[in-house]
UniProtKB/TrEMBL annotation:
Belongs to the short-chain dehydrogenases/reductases (SDR) family. GO terms for molecular function: oxidoreductase activity. PANTHER family: PHOSPHATIDYLINOSITOL-GLYCAN BIOSYNTHESIS CLASS F PROTEIN-RELATED, RETINOL DEHYDROGENASE 13. It comes from Oncorhynchus kisutch. This is Retinol dehydrogenase 13. InterPro entries: NAD(P)-bd_dom_sf, SDR_fam. Keywords: Oxidoreductase. The keyword Protein biosynthesis does not apply.
Amino acid sequence: MSKYILPVSVFGTVFGSAVLLKNHVTGGPCPSKAKIPGKTVVITGANTGIGKETAKELAKRGGRIIMGCRDMEKCEAAAKEIRGQTLNPHVYARHIDLASINSIRQFAERVNQEETHVDVLINNAGVMRCPAGKTEDGFDIQFGVNHLGHFLLTNLLLEKLKDSAPSRVVNLTSLAHIVGEIDFNDLNWDNKKFDTKRAYCQSKLANVLFTRELAQRLEGTGVTVNCLHPGVVATELGRHTGLHQSQFSSSVLSPFFTLLVKGPELGAQPSVYLAVAEELEGVTGCYYDVMIEKEPAPKALDQEVSRRLWEASARLMGLEQAASAAVPASNRAQEKPSTDPDTKIIAKHSLSALEQTGMNPGV
């Protein structure tokens, strides 16, 4: 029997060390045990992956969960599953297509009408390195879904969030923002050769810039805005990356990916943390790498770029008036009308896109 002790001990030590290392690399579970009974949480992309696990965990904590999804069949199934697993009956499936201005407006209108308050908005949905394509309104699919769609949704729910203060907005971004560039001359890849990696990185940088700009504009309202990189998570989001499609990557690299890549349940923990942690009350405008606050890339700290991106996004979404109203009085005097020729080009694109949908560009 003694001859088995050493091998078993070695195996146990290696296995235990691997588990501890994975927890260290992936961040582990959310340290906050805070409950949220009576609070309403809106989560986009909640039928699968990180979004679904976030919805499940927040439902366990007593929240009223509004799951916003494009595929209603999957969303209804996920909501039913979460209700059964958590015994929380207040989990609802709602339709939203972040690639459609009309769909976003309909979703926001329903939330504003049906919900007495919105305490947390988690902008979770996204696409990653997908083939070239356009949204219903003519925007690059990654910039449109990852940034513009959530920009519009957040603005449409702002009054409800303010009325519900203290409330929180949580934006999911990516470490890929570090290499992102905002091309104001061609945000939607209309005039240059499409590069899916660069398009994705641009959209993720936009998430961080949006977070910081919105946090500044909401100063003093009781609404906080933070963003996070959830880590490397094995979800359907990476289906276009080509990972593990070669024999080498699937056989040789797979053990390392298993150690470093986490599943959706662990991937959801940073979102849960930013949504509920009591120690984050009042914290705003920050970037979190998993659950650790860090400084984002220098280009994400450029206030002029964040202002220009806000103005460009507002024009593309037809929100010029709302964007102006969102600036606190203390900051409004510092804002100057943009005479940038790049944003004039963007405004022209906005007008064309909105006319195609039959919407009033001034709304």
